Structure formats: C-alpha cells, structure tokens
Backbone:
C-alpha cells in the first residue's frame, strides 16, 4: 500500500499501462522534459524515453490528429490537452473525427485513444483555464468520458481507459491534484461505466462528480448533524453512465440532488434528472434539484470563483432547504 | 451604404481574366516509365472518369442522394500517386475522395453502392460519398471537414515510424485546405518529426465557388508555403499522370528512406462544379474551355498512341472499363436499403451504441 497524491497517481497509472503494453505512447505539450504543467507526468520520460513520451508544439489539432492516426493504425495513444478549455481548439478532432470514425466507416476503424485533460476550477485562472467542460464531450456520440475523484480511481480508471478500444476523455481535476489517497500494491484495473456509493444514506441521494464528490460528502456529514441522512454517489463515468446505481439509490431515498461544476445549461445532471423523471418518477417524494455553477463564464477573483462553484455550504444549505 | 453594381461586380468571378493551364509538355513522353505501367495508368484514369460520369448520371436520376463531389478532370493526380504507392501504404482524402478510394483498389460496385445508400455499400450505407474508406486497401478515410485529416495522416506516418515499417502515408486535399490552421499544424509536426508522409495539394484553382488566388496570400497556395516548414517547393502538372507519377515516386521513396515529409502542389482543374449539380457558371468560360483542351485523359491517350500503342488496344481497355462500370452499377442497384438493424450498431468496439446501463 502506498499513499499517492492525485497528480502522482496520474503518472503511476500511465506507467502501469506503459509497462504492460510496450506499444503505448503519449504525446502533449510540456509532458516530457517538464513533467507536465500540473506535474502529472513526472518521471515518465526517464523511464520510457523520448520515443514514447513526446513533447509537442502548441498544436492541439496536430496532437489529437497524430493520436488518432497512430491509434487507427495499431499504436494506442494517450494524448494530453493541457487545459480542458483548449478542447475548443481541437474539437473537430474529438467531435467529428475520433468519435464518428467507427460508425461512419461501418465498423472499419478503431480509435483507441485516451485524451487526458486538466478540468475544473478553484485555481483562480479565470474563464479560459478553469471551466468544467465535461458536458462538452459527454454530448458527442462515440466518446466515453470519465472524471475520477480519488488517486485510486485515477489509477484504475486510467487503466480501464487505456485498455478500452474506443476514444475516452479522461478528466483530471486541477483542484484535486494535491489530494492524497491509498493505492494498493499490484496491478489496478477499474471499469468504465460504474458509479460508486461513497456514503450511504436513506433520506436523499446526492450525485456528484470529481471535485464535487468530496464537497458532497462533507455536506452530507453536516446534514447528518441536522438529522438528514444523505447518500452520496460518485458518478465517476459520464459515458457509459451507470444509471442503475443512481436509480437504485433514488428508489431507496426518494429524493435526488445533483452537484455539478459545469455551468447549468445542459450539464450532466440535466440528463440524470431527465432519466430519473422518466423512469422512477413515482418513487420521488419531491423535485429533483440541480446544484450547479451558474450559467456564467468563470470569474478569476477568489471571492467570485468561490461563489460560482458549488461549495460545501451551498450544497448543505440547498439540500436542507429543499428537504425541509 | 447602398451596394453598387461595382461592388457586386467584384464577385462576378466569371468576368475575371481566365487562369490558363500550363502548356502540354511532350518531353514527358520520355519519362522513364515502363509501358506496362503507363497502360495501367491509362486504365485507372479510364475507370475514374467513367465511374465519376456514372455517379453523375445516377445523381441526376435521383439515385445518389445527399451530395457528391466529383474528380472529373483531376484523375491524373489520384492515378499518378495511386500507382506509385505500395499496397500497405496509407491514403487519406477529403470529401472529394471517390477517385482516391478507387485508385487503391476498392471495389467500384461497393463504392457506387455506398453513394446510392445501399446495404452492400463499402460503409454499409452509414458514411456516404464524403467518407469513403477501405482499410483493407490502405484507404484510411475520406474526411469531409478539411484540415483535420492532414494531422491524422501524420499519425499514421508516426505509427509506421514507431513500428519500424517503411510504410508511407499520402494525404490529398484541395487548394482551399491550405488556408486552414490544421494544414500548418500538420506540416510543422511532420517536419519536426521527419514523418514519412506526403501531402498532395490538388490545386484546382477554385475553393468551392471562390477563386483561390483572391483569398490566398501567395500565388501557389501549397508550394509557396513549403519553405516555411523547411520543405522544397514542388509544383507538378496535375493533368499529366506521368509527370505526377514521376514526382510521386520520388517523394514517396524519400519518405520511405526516412528522409521526411514532402508537400506537392499538383495544378489541375475540376471540369464540373464543386458538388452535386453545380454547373460552375461562376467560372470564366475561356478558363473552363482552356482546361478542357488539357483534359488529362485524351492527352494521355495521344501520348500512348505516340509511344506506339495501337488504338485498338486503348479502345479495348476503354470498353473493358465500361463493362466494369456497368457491372458495378448493377451491383449497386441490386443492394437493399439498410434496415433498422444497422442504425444502432458500430458506435463502440462491442458493435453497439449503449451509453448507459
């Protein structure tokens, strides 16, 4: 058992897979010599060499294009897009090329690529380096999307993503980088499309993702002091989406809250709310409530950013109020 | 401010000075290309020509739905390169990719069936004219949003480099593509990594409905950009299959030897409009006429006659190709329309499309 930081777990998970599969390569900006701007790839160049860990120019389209072309001709690739906001400059490759190739070609083409990217706020970087953009990629048929909240999940879901034959967007949360957690010895392989109940409860269900998971857990602890027993689900994987875990929990608690860092419109919780309303409506004792970042670009100032992103206070207060 | 006739006249491109083709170079008769190779190129050009004409006819009969972009007049480029490639090399093309797909050996019947949206189409009817792909023939796809596929071709070349094979990726695109960012990202990355990739710009003078020279900072949209990436400026007569083949052999071998990428500008002309039934009326009539006089296929026919091939041999090739295209048409028309069982398949590697449990 080793204690790893979340950022250390990224390199640990990649190294596990690169040792297993000698054909696996990685490319991105500042990932080799510098070890990544978030220090998530430290030590990989030293272990695997410059042919497998490649620094690139600031050319996000060329990065994802190279990843796709290599993957469709037999070389699995991990590509890093430094900040998830930059997905916008190479969205064609993600949304139109990687995602659609298999379908458009009647199954001729496989694109085993993992696109790693640093997502989310809390770093006071302003509107172009802080967004939670999981909903941008979740809406594209043909892309899988995961967003781990713990070091152990980083390692296990990284392995699952690398071994998956379809393109996977792997969202690493910037504000979780320093978090620590235990990672057992030996090979760790998780599964895409499996949510986890991280705190059991009976009165309401709180579904959360990435940075919102520890905040939801802390809010649930506070709610317990007020006599509200909240069950917290770490959604972990948006595509495939483990709706059974969520629906099962709602059947038990009869209330659902989603905690989303993405701006409100078309956030992942809207899809979850729609499924719950459609399929277990008669199990509900009250409205489904979405707790989200408001529909604004993310501000830079500490005070403003903290107001925008759902906080422990906002989660606990909203749940208490709407349960009251 | 009111728009005047002088303003709108700026956009009546048919009134501009025609941009004329380069003169025929009969010295190319002497290029060191075996007669057998030349006959193969004649046959391939015939196939591309007759296939595209048939696609047009079927479109006019409302059997080809959606859109299609023909390579009529541009067959020599796909032919010269196609015949210089090894079976395990990779091709990447744009939406104007019928010719490049056929040039790698894909079945004309299955390609035509795809245009007709039939179940026996090469993509089972799920991709259509703009996404023709035949991985078994090294045809790695037709990409309908220009630019991205240059970066994807880099990836295939990078993969060949890593796997230690000497495969080469050849990526075709039009003059319009030279003005999109991905073109420049791809060229830079190919150059810094010495990738075995050949970029082939089919400069047909028209970016869709707009003259390329009006919207490009340099006269030769690809060749004049090459030096910015440390590459040689290469311009070739894209209406002469021998000239194209000669250049293709050189740049492909260079890539195979590990000496890095090349960028080739093939000057050509599309005899028809941009897509579908576009009559191309926005072009100066004298320009259209001058390029028709330099149609690659009659010119090549004349060359073969000069080289001593009997007319009867050439007409036998033509007739055999006509028979194949008729057969392909029958095959395509015989296909059923794809049913519901195909709608939800092939999103994921497991064959399905489930996104939740």
Residues:
């Amino acid at each position: 058992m080793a204690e790893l930081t979340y950022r250390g777990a990224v390199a640990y998970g990649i190294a596990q897979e690169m040792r297993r599969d000698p054909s696996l390569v990685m490319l991105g900006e500042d990932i080799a010599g510098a070890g990544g701007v978030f220090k998530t790839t430290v030590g990989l160049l030293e272990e695997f060499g410059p042919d497998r860990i490649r620094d690139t120019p600031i050319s996000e389209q060329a990065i994802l294009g190279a990843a796709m072309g290599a993957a469709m001709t037999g070389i699995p690739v991990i590509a890093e897009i430094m900040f998830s906001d930059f997905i916008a400059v190479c969205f064609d490759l993600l949304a139109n090329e990687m995602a659609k190739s298999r379908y458009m070609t009647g199954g001729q083409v496989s694109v085993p690529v993992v696109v790693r990217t640093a997502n989310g706020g809390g770093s006071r970087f302003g509107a172009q380096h802080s967004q939670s953009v999981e909903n941008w990629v979740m809406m594209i048929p043909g892309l899988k999307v995961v967003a781990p909240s713990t070091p152990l999940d980083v390692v296990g879901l990284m392995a699952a993503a690398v071994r998956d034959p379809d393109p996977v967007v792997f969202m690493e949360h910037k504000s979780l980088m320093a978090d620590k957690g235990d990672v057992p010895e030996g090979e760790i392989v998780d599964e895409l499309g499996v949510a986890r109940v991280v705190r059991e409860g009976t009165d309401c269900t709180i579904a959360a993702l990435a940075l919102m998971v520890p905040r939801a857990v802390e809010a649930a602890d506070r709610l317990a002091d007020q006599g509200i027993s909240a069950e917290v689900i770490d959604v972990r994987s948006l595509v495939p989406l483990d709706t059974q875990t969520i629906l099962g929990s709602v059947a038990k608690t009869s209330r659902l809250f989603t905690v989303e860092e993405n701006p409100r419109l078309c956030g992942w919780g809207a899809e979850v709310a729609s499924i719950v309303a459609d399929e277990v409506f008669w199990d509900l004792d009250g409205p489904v409530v979405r707790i989200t970042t408001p529909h604004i670009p993310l501000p830079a100032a500490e005070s403003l950013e903290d107001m925008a992103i759902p906080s422990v206070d906002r989660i606990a207060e909203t749940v208490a109020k709407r349960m009251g | 401010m009111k728009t005047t006739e002088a303003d709108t006249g700026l956009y009546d491109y048919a009134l501009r000075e025609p941009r004329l083709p380069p003169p025929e170079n009969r010295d190319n008769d002497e290029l060191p290309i075996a007669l057998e190779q030349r006959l193969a190129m004649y046959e391939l050009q015939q196939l591309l020509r007759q296939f595209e004409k048939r696609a047009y006819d079927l479109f006019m009969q409302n059997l080809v739905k959606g859109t299609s972009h023909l390579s009529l007049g541009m067959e020599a480029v796909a032919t010269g390169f196609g015949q210089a490639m090894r079976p395990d090399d990779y091709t990447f093309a744009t939406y104007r990719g019928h010719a490049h797909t056929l040039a790698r050996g894909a079945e004309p019947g299955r390609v035509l069936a795809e245009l007709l949206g039939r179940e026996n189409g090469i993509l089972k009817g799920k991709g259509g004219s703009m996404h023709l792909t035949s991985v078994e023939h090294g045809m790695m796809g037709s990409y309908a949003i220009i630019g991205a596929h240059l970066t994807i071709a880099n990836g295939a070349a990078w993969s060949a480099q890593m796997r230690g094979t000497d495969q080469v990726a050849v990526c075709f695109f039009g003059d319009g593509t030279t003005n999109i960012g991905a073109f420049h990202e791809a060229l830079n990355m190919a150059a810094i990594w010495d990738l075995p990739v050949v970029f082939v710009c089919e400069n047909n003078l028209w970016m869709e409905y707009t003259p390329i020279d009006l919207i490009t900072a340099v006269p030769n949209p690809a060749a004049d950009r090459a030096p910015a990436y440390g590459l040689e400026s290469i311009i070739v007569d894209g209406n002469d299959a021998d000239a194209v083949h000669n250049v293709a052999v050189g740049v492909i071998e260079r890539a195979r030897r590990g000496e890095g990428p090349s960028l080739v500008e093939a000057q050509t002309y599309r005899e028809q409009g941009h897509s579908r039934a576009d009559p191309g009326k926005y072009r100066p009539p004298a320009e259209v006429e001058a390029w028709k006089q330099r149609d690659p296929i009659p010119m090549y026919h004349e060359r073969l006659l000069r080289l001593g091939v009997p007319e009867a041999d050439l007409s036998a090739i033509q007739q055999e190709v006509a028979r194949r295209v008729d057969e392909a048409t029958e095959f395509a028309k015989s296909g059923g329309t794809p049913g519901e069982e195909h709608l939800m398949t092939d999103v994921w590697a497991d064959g399905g499309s489930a996104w939740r449990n």
Observations:
- The radius of gyration of chain A is 19 Å.
